[in-house]
Write a structure and sequence with these properties.
The complex is a heterotrimer of chains A (448), B (506) and C (125). Chain A contains twelve helices and 13 strands. With 448 residues, chain A is an alpha/beta fold. Chain A has two domains: 115 residues, Aspartate Aminotransferase, domain 1 (Alpha-Beta Complex), CATH 3.90.1150.10; 257 residues, Aspartate Aminotransferase, domain 2 (3-Layer(aba) Sandwich), CATH 3.40.640.10. Chain A has a seven-stranded mixed β-sheet with strand order 1-7-6-5-4-2-3, with helices on both faces. A four-stranded antiparallel β-sheet of chain A has the order 10-11-13-12. In chain A, strands 8-9 form a two-stranded antiparallel sheet. The termini of chain A are far apart. Chain B has a domain of 254 residues: Type I PLP-dependent aspartate aminotransferase-like (Major domain) (Aspartate Aminotransferase, domain 2), CATH 3.40.640.10. In chain B, 33% of the residues lie in helices and 10% in strands. Chain B is built from 13 helices and 13 strands. In chain B, strand 8 and strand 9 form a beta hairpin. Chain B starts with 62 loop residues before the first helix and ends with a helix. In chain C, strand 6 and strand 7 form a beta hairpin. Chain C is globular, with a radius of gyration of 13 Å. The chains are: A alpha/beta (448), B alpha/beta (506), C alpha+beta (125). Chains in contact: A-B, A-C, B-C. Chains A and B meet through helix 1, helix 2, helix 3, helix 4 and helix 5 of A and helix 1, helix 2, helix 3, helix 4 and helix 5 of B.
């Protein structure tokens, strides 16, 4: 076995040193009924070539977004990732290191996380960011639980423009932890009135920006209403690239901003692993979940970094921790921060502008097609259209023509008849004019 | 020579291969970028009047600067690729690069999670294969694939238990957790609305069976036990514990953090457990990546399987189907965006296929052998926490440091100067000044022998009264001991422009 | 200092007229090490004897501070927010945590006096 250095002779001499006759003696605490003598019913070991062949065969059964015009978004976005990103994150000192508990030998990880925290705080316009969460979806649930702690209230309002997965995960936590959720009906037109939903028990209002359906709203009136009611405003961002074009939620009075960070540095990868961004105001930092890196000095007086404010976390606080989370999404955060560092101020703004322009171009292309209506007045790189027929079969028919033509809303709400003809369409800097022509042409035919 | 750095004695502050590296924010220049993008077309925006008014504040760097920045940062890290990383309970084993190659294949890396299912049959088949391996290795009938990490898997398991109890019309209050448990166990139980009731360890580092039995009652929802446990020992009474907890109508959550010690040799399903998470980044060597991402699939018994979270893969009439909604069923809900940590499934499958059933069994045996070899080679100069052999990790207490004025922490810091990452310290909490050493199966005997020589040397040095050496350590690292008190008293959690740079920019 | 009493959880309480000043003992601050953060209750909060009233944190530990007696918080030592090190430097003085309006003076009698607490601490070794 290529990964196992011990030779049979090594094993013999080591057993002798230990003073046992066989390896079985080291498993003597295992109850007799659970001791297995032979191997389990699975194939034996294989060489690289064989494994590569088998997994490649599975990969070939899929239609990747790299081989087809793709207009899929809804919380995961295809962007071009510079070659140096994937090269750098595969440096063994990053890839095969662990949580930086020993700061003297993990300054590399600690420094990039400190830079990551700074970048995330800047993007969202907030005071402070943590070193990342599992993904954007779970970050929302953590944010709601944090708002409950801060306000000592237990009713959260979820906008109908919130990604259904984000809402469903929050609902799971609400069920088991026992807090109330006022989940609003899906809001494909971006017209819901959230201010009216706030009451004296409300710990927070969660709104997505741009919304799941693509709408962009001024959050200031909502922030003001939350402030007056003593509730927190939580803003979830599904597409972080939008922050290159939009006013950040921090500038509009958000108390907690969470985001999915996949768009920068990370591949689509069929849904994970991704990277959750989590930010808040300074005054709430001790109620935050997740790891934090802070600046300090070493014994020689030189600047360095350490994990800090750890008393919030499970390894110290145990059942009183702010969250049970024990990892961050380190490697994905590294990819995120490298990509954003490469972009810089100018590149990030340009990337956002290109995305917005691509979606605008797509909207214009589709506008003339009969049987298709665009619901959005505003959008960033994604918008909702209403088709004259149910959307899922249209998407299936597009796939047969080799086009990944958006996400039918019915995928999330299979029972909602009123949503079955809605289709989410996204365009990024990766979409060419030819892609758009292919989609427009196919839709025109299918909607005849 | 007044401009010599007082610490390094060099003009640059560098020390050979250790090169000082400022923050990206201290290197930026306006107008510089590391990515060439075309100019966007001009025209009115459709941003609903919410176009960004000010700059983000990101620094501008070119590609060579960026590559150098992260390369230099990487050189300040210790990693498995550099050497033995005996961090107990974390399982720092070799990360095969084949796994990295596989996850980047077109057709996997570029799959969108919401494509029509007809276009992702290979991906669903892959998830199904990983599930098959995990179920077979654990002897369990079902597995929930979506949890994002071990702690997330714990949450999944305890939620499934609670859902099963609620389905029976029962509300129970307590979850039993051994004192030696990882902090995530009590934190998880609390996050599911349970009271945590701690069970003491006995003198042998195992669950105190009598104390456990005394805590049983109709309000106990379940027990969470790590097996092998955090002391690196197998719980010999595990079957009795399972029977007793089932006897009062509760469920058995097994923390599978240490599955690597028994994989291929023992199926947890044969021990009477109801659920167990598997840290793919430990046992199946998807990389730790500086602290994540992980993946924590949870295997489930027949009793808990109906309550598994969404989504899950099933064999449908036209190939594989992905169940994302379950209005009529008993699934407890959704726990993670999309379908789980697919990238980790690919890596774990490559790892499992490479080892096969024979190699995985050898993995467990060699991990246990290596740990016992360390224990046997150090027990005369250090102080094993418990008598007898161990499983995959060797636990020592700090009795051997008594009256030396050297603490466990000092000892670990001295190990850094010797070129090793320290072992896990002060955990588990049931052992005073714990040092938990997990070599893993991917260390050669030569590597272990050198480590043993170093450990013996340090033990002798501590006993010889050279406490100062330990107090000063580490001296040879990019940074020496860092002031964690100052960091926590007035937290600086992000870079901010100084007044001068701000003015210069304006 | 005859009007100072102690709890088994290492809080001290000193009577000042109708109110009482509360903090943690010298022994407690030594056990904790460098204090990095103190979470104090808001003024006006009613606390109950033996229930959590504040939290004191070092880098690697967080400890609950329990109310030695029942009462209402009339003042909290805001200086500790900026300078938690005061708890280490002067636990019985500048490092005080809260002032309580006493609900029931008789509760004080059940607490240890200086001598009894000293013995109690010695017994812990």
């Amino acid at each position: 076995m290529r990964y196992l250095p011990l030779t049979p002779e090594d094993r013999r001499s080591m057993l002798a040193k230990i003073g046992v006759a066989s390896i079985d003696d080291l498993y003597e605490d295992v109850p007799a009924r659970a001791r297995r003598t032979g191997t389990v019913d699975l194939p034996p070991h294989q060489g690289e070539l064989e494994v590569e062949r088998a997994i490649s065969a599975l990969a070939r059964q899929n239609l990747g977004t790299g081989s087809a015009p793709s207009f899929l978004g809804a919380g995961a976005y295809r962007h071009h990732v510079p070659a140096s990103v994937d090269h750098l994150i595969q440096r063994g000192e990053f890839l095969t290191s662990y949580t930086p508990y020993q700061p003297e030998v993990t300054q590399g990880t600690l420094q990039y996380l400190f830079e990551f925290q700074t970048q995330v705080a800047l993007l969202t316009g907030m005071d402070v960011a943590n070193a990342s969460m599992y993904d954007g979806a779970t970050s929302v649930a953590e944010a709601v639980m944090m708002a409950n702690r801060v306000t000592r209230r237990d009713r959260a309002v979820l906008s109908g423009g919130l990604h259904p997965h984000y809402a469903e995960i929050t609902a799971t936590h609400a069920r088991f932890l026992g807090f109330d959720l006022a989940r609003q009906a899906p809001d494909p037109t971006g017209t819901e009135d959230l201010i009216a939903t706030i009451d004296a028990d409300t710990s927070c209002v969660v709104v997505q920006y741009p919304s799941f359906f693509g709408h962009i709203r001024d959050l200031r009136p909502l922030a003001e209403a939350c402030r007056k009611a003593g509730a927190l405003l939580i803003v979830a961002i599904g597409e972080i690239v939008a922050m290159g074009a939009l006013e950040p939620p921090g500038a509009m009075g958000a108390d907690i901003v969470t985001a999915e960070g996949q768009s920068l540095g990370n591949s689509l990868g069929f849904g994970g692993p991704y990277v959750g961004l989590f930010t808040t105001r300074d005054k709430y930092v001790r109620q935050m979940p997740g790891r934090l890196v802070g600046e300090t000095r070493d014994a020689d007086g030189r600047r360095g970094w350490v994990l800090t404010l750890s008393t919030r976390e499970q390894h110290i606080r145990r059942e009183k921790a702010t969250s049970n989370i024990c990892t961050n999404s380190g490697l994905c955060a590294l990819a995120f921060t490298i990509h954003l560092t490469l972009l810089g101020e100018a590149g990030f703004a340009r990337l956002a502008a290109l995305n917005h322009a691509a979606a605008g171009k797509l909207a214009d292309r589709l506008a003339g097609i009969g049987g298709l209506e665009i619901l959005n007045k505003s959008f960033f790189n994604e918008f909702t259209v209403r088709l004259k027929t149910p959307a899922a079969p249209v998407v299936e028919a597009l796939a047969k023509r080799g086009i990944l033509g958006g996400v039918p809303v019915s995928r999330f709400f299979p029972k909602e008849k009123s949503l079955e003809s809605l289709l989410l369409l996204c365009a990024t800097e990766t979409n060419t004019d030819e892609d758009m022509a292919a989609l427009a042409g196919a839709l025109k035919e299918l909607l005849k | 020579m007044s401009n010599l750095d007082p610490v390094t004695g060099t003009f640059s502050g560098n020390r050979g291969l250790q090169i000082e590296e400022p923050l990206i924010f201290e290197q930026g220049q306006e107008g510089r970028t590391g990515v060439d993008l075309p100019a966007p077309p001009k025209g009115a925006d459709r941003l609903g009047g919410m176009a960004r008014k000010g700059a983000v504040g990101l620094p501008g760097l070119s590609e060579p600067q960026v590559v150098r920045h992260y390369t230099r940062l990487s050189q300040k890290n210790y990693a498995i690729d550099s050497g033995l990383y005996p961090l107990g309970s974390c399982t720092m084993k070799h990360n095969p690069r084949l796994n990295e190659k596989m996850v980047r294949l077109p057709g996997l890396a570029d799959l969108h999670p919401l494509q029509p299912l007809s276009t992702v049959q290979g991906a669903l088949a892959l998830i199904d294969q990983v599930a098959h391996w995990l179920k077979t290795l654990t002897g369990m009938p079902a597995v929930a694939m979506s949890p994002g990490a071990g702690a997330h898997g714990e949450l999944c398991g305890i939620m499934a238990i609670r859902a099963a109890l609620e389905h029976r019309g029962e509300t129970r209050k307590r979850i039993l957790v051994p004192e030696s448990a990882h902090g995530t166990n009590p934190a998880t139980a609390a996050a599911c609305g349970y009271e945590v009731d701690a069970i003491p360890a006995n003198a042998k580092g195992r669950v105190d069976l009598e104390a456990f039995r005394a805590k049983l009652g109709p309000d106990v929802a379940g027990i969470m036990i790590t097996n092998p446990n955090t002391c690196g020992l197998f719980e010999p009474d595990i079957v009795e514990i399972a029977e007793a907890i089932h006897g009062v109508g509760g469920y058995f959550y097994c923390d599978g953090a240490n599955f690597n010690a028994i994989v291929g040799r023992v199926r947890p399903g044969d021990l009477g457990i109801d659920c167990m998470h598997i840290n793919l980044h430990k046992t199946f060597s998807t990389p730790h990546g500086g602290g994540g991402p992980g993946a924590g699939p949870v295997v489930l018994s027949e009793a808990l399987a109906p309550f598994a979270p969404l989504p899950y893969v099933v064999h449908g009439k036209d190939g594989f189907d992905l169940v994302e909604h379950d209005e009529k069923g008993r699934a407890f809900g959704r726990l993670k965006g999309f379908h789980g940590q697919m990238g980790m499934f690919v890596r774990a499958l490559a790892y499992m296929m490479s080892h096969g059933s024979d190699g995985l069994r050898q993995v467990a045996e060699d991990a246990v052998l290596n740990a016992n070899y360390i224990l046997a080679s150090l027990k005369d100069v250090m102080s094993p926490a418990f008598d007898g052999t161990c499983m995959h990790e060797a636990l020592f207490d700090d009795a051997f440091l008594k009256d030396t004025d050297v603490t466990t922490l000092d000892f670990a810091k001295a190990l850094i100067d010797e070129g090793y990452h320290p072992m896990t310290m002060y955990f588990p909490l049931v052992v005073h000044g714990a040092l938990l050493v997990e070599p893993t199966e991917t260390e050669s005997k030569d590597s272990l022998d050198l480590f043993v020589t170093v450990m013996r040397g340090l033990a002798a040095r501590a006993k010889a009264g050279e406490a100062q050496h330990f107090h000063d350590a580490p001296k040879l690292t990019p940074r020496r001991r860092l002031d964690e008190t100052a960091a926590a008293r007035s937290p600086v959690l992000r870079w901010k422009p100084t007044v001068e740079t701000k003015q210069a920019a304006e | 200092m005859s009007n100072v009493r102690y709890t088994e959880d290492h809080e001290w309480i000193r009577l000042e007229g109708d109110t009482a000043v509360v903090g943690i003992s010298q022994y407690a601050q030594e056990q904790l090490g460098d204090v990095v953060y103190v979470e104090l209750p808001e003024v006006g909060r009613k606390v109950e004897k033996g229930k959590e009233m504040a939290v004191v944190e070092s880098v690697k530990a967080a400890s609950e501070v329990y109310a030695p007696i029942s009462g209402e918080v009339v003042a909290a030592n805001a200086a500790l927010t900026a300078e938690p090190a005061k708890v280490n430097a002067d636990p019985m003085g500048d490092g005080w945590f809260v002032k309580l309006k006493i609900a029931n003076k008789a509760e004080l009698d059940k607490l240890m006096d200086e001598g009894a607490y000293k013995k109690f601490v010695e017994g812990l070794h």
